[in-house]
Amino acid sequence: MTGLAEASDRGAEQVRQPVPLNSPMPQGPLPSHVDGCFGCGQHNYAGVGMTLELIGDRIVGRFTFDERHKGAPGLAHGGVVAAVLDEASGTVPTTMCVPAVTAKLEVNYAKPAPLHRPMIVSAILDRREGERKLHIHARLELDGELVAEANALFVVVSPDHFFAHGAKEGELPFFGV
Ligand SMILES: CC(C)(COP(=O)(O)OP(=O)(O)OC[C@H]1O[C@@H](n2cnc3c(N)ncnc32)[C@H](O)[C@@H]1OP(=O)(O)O)[C@@H](O)C(=O)NCCC(=O)NCCSC(=O)Cc1ccccc1
């Protein structure tokens, strides 16, 4: 088992409380950033139910694709592969308590992603560019081998970005809203 797998095996039993805007999150298991999220929500029937952890400066997520995520017999759809890379990437600004959204996601599909096999996705901040741009790199691995990777540009937004589309007070505590 890899170091990442061992660290993630600690599970999400100690769920952390949200912290104020722009305060870094403590190390360890992370709660879902929003109830019902496709990536990390534990109550989304179609979702992957990813558990997430902050380990050092890296986000580590664990999940297993199943029949709901199929694109070909036995294999995950390419769009859901992109979604899990996006989820891990989006959790990087979340743990910095910075509201940011995906502006661009470039995916390299190295190998097919099988269903019913536990996978690990990780993400890290490559660099900040100015006040609003975050360049984030994510990797999806199976048994320590690369399945897919992504380079993403996240853009910092005002909390109004979410309010304008129906978010209610208290629904996004990591973003201070
Ligand atoms: C907000 C924004 C991204 C940017 O609009 P504005 O605010 O008007 O800002 P503006 O357009 O001025 O750009 C600022 C700077 O950025 C640059 N730049 C921008 N785009 C590109 C590009 N493609 N390529 C390259 N550069 C680009 C642009 O040139 C400018 O650079 P400059 O300052 O001149 O050097 C808008 O297009 C939008 O809402 N898109 C939809 C986002 C969405 O729905 N995402 C999916 C859901 S979120 C999710 O899933 C994540 C998640 C998962 C899990 C957990 C948590 C999170």
TrEMBL record:
Keywords: Cytoplasm, Fatty acid metabolism, Hydrolase, Lipid metabolism, Transit peptide. Residues 74-125 form the Thioesterase domain. InterPro entries: THEM4/THEM5_acyl-CoA_thioest, Thioestr_dom. It comes from Nocardia iowensis. It holds the Pfam family 4HBT. This is PaaI family thioesterase. Residues 1-28 are annotated as: Disordered. It comes from the Bacteria. It is found in: Cytoplasm. Its main location: cytoplasm.
